[in-house]
Amino acid sequence: MSAEKKRSxxxxxxxxxxxxxxxxxxxxxxxxxxxxxxxPEVNDAGAINExxxxxIEINPxxxxxxxxxxxxxxxxxxxxLQGLIQPITVRRLSAHKYQLISGERRxxxxxxxxxxxxxxxxxxxxxxQMLEMALIENIQxxxxxxxxxxxxxxxxxxxxxxxxxxxxxxxxxxxxxVNNYLRLLKLPPAIQASIRDGGxxxxxxxxxxxxxxxxxxxxxxxxxxxxxxxxxxVEEMVRNIAKNADKxxxxxxxxxxxxxxxxxxxIQDDLASKFSTKVKLKVDAKGAGSIEIPFxxxxxxxxxxxxxxx
Length: 310
Prior knowledge:
It is a single chain. By secondary structure, the protein is an alpha/beta fold. The chain is about 50% helix and about 15% strand. The protein contains 13 helices and 9 strands. The termini are far apart.
């Protein structure tokens, strides 16, 4: 071996020891450097790396919770034929362990396709940076439903201490758009589920969030599902409800019906949410009263009776 080769190898080994990096060096029989298998070489963050699917764990901050099974199977078939074209993004936890930042749909489909290795960008990020990257990338690039988007916005505000203006700048949306999404989370659970599942559109939802009473919201929601109401028709119903509310007397004390207390109003709203329809609670001055649960059809009555375990 020449002196030049000895000096070159010795220097490389010394730098490796000083830096204590994850790629250690062994000597082969011909005295050439060789990476140790326990610390695989990883290219820089801008390069594409091939990593084992079995070494990737799911991102706990993933905002997407609903994956279409048929779409996943179709993507898996495409991957079998063409391979995975768009790499996922991960962060490295240890020599043979990675955590997904974005691309869970692609990862799931790759597993269905039977891939052993997958192309990936590898980044270094702490949990807060990882959450922000995952949320922003999903909001901007994935087809999230409106409720998933709203939940992502809420998490960014709660866990990253962002104001609405800052959040809007990060996701390239104006403040009013961000606010409209966040207001969806104040709708009754039954309506949120309907938005998530595509039962009503974002246009319907925007009209419903202007209605103050949850019982009125649920009544209109049932009418949308039953009659297939357009967004314009719903907006008209909302305006009529607002006009009638302005003309409504404060309390009908002549008939002995007292206005609902805060607790009674809360019970009425909770019942309306439970039965996904407008519920009316009546309480007189002596504390006696009744509960009215209207239904829109025989099927709707059957649904309510089933919930009552009738």
